[in-house]
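Ops channel
N.P.: pipeline sanity check, posting one input/output pair.
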């Protein structure tokens, strides 16, 4: 879940797609956006980026994402 101004969300999405493109020499990069919930004043969108790039090692993933998982 991301709550914030639209310019920050756009910058995050641009960074995710740029990284996927940078590290995918062969294959494909997919970007999707799906409206998952909507009311008169709020909405939720699920963004996905999938690629065939080299990926990030499990150790690096833990280091990078531990801040966001509360570990």
């Amino acid at each position: 879940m991301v709550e914030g101004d639209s310019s920050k969300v756009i910058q995050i999405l641009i960074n995710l797609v740029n990284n996927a493109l940078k590290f995918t020499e062969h294959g494909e990069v997919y970007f999707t956006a799906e409206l998952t919930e909507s009311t008169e004043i709020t909405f939720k969108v699920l963004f996905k980026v999938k690629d065939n790039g080299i990926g990030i090692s499990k150790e690096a993933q833990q280091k990078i994402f531990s801040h966001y998982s509360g570990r």
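N.P.: looks fine end to end. The chain has a mean pLDDT of 86.
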